[in-house]
Design brief:
Elements (H helix, E strand, L loop, with lengths): L2 E5 L2 E4 L4 E8 L6 E8 L6 E6 L6 E3 L7 E6 L4 E6 L8 E9 L15 E2 L3 E6 L1
Parallel strand pairs: 2-11
Antiparallel strand pairs: 1-3, 3-8, 4-5, 4-9, 5-6, 7-8, 9-10, 9-11
Length: 127
């Protein structure tokens, strides 16, 4: 059974950096495309970033482009999200997601594309 556990959230001030990690278990990590989403109360879950199986293809939502970096470590079965220059509008609960795919260079952008989800970790950015 695939399991994802995210951690690394916390409370920071605007302009600070924070790194989230998501540890994967239960299957061959290298078969999975990965993503990060976020959600604030009362709103739908929003795509943040995605990375392909190969790690060579990444995609970001416009609001985080240039500030966030998604990466994967297949030796440690984890996907990270490095968040720099954080803004109050980045405040949300962040979820990691995984889906098996035969394609090594494509990424997934939609919630419905992902089969497995972590429990989320809260990020709060104060102004």
């Amino acid at each position: 059974q695939v399991h994802l556990e995210a951690f690394g959230g916390g409370w920071v001030q605007a302009g600070d950096s924070l790194s989230l990690s998501c540890v994967f278990s239960g299957d061959a990590f290298s078969k999975y495309g990965l993503g990060w989403f976020r959600q604030v109360p009362g709103k739908g879950r929003e795509f943040v970033a995605a990375i392909s199986r190969s790690g060579l293809s990444t995609k970001y939502t416009t609001s985080v482009e240039g500030r966030f970096t998604i990466s994967r470590d297949d030796a440690k079965n984890k996907v990270d999200l490095l968040m720099n220059s954080l803004k109050p509008e980045d405040t949300a609960r962040y979820y990691c997601a995984a889906t098996p795919t035969i394609y090594t260079t494509t990424y997934r952008l939609l919630q419905s594309d992902y089969d497995y989800w972590g429990q989320g970790t809260q990020v709060t950015v104060s102004s």
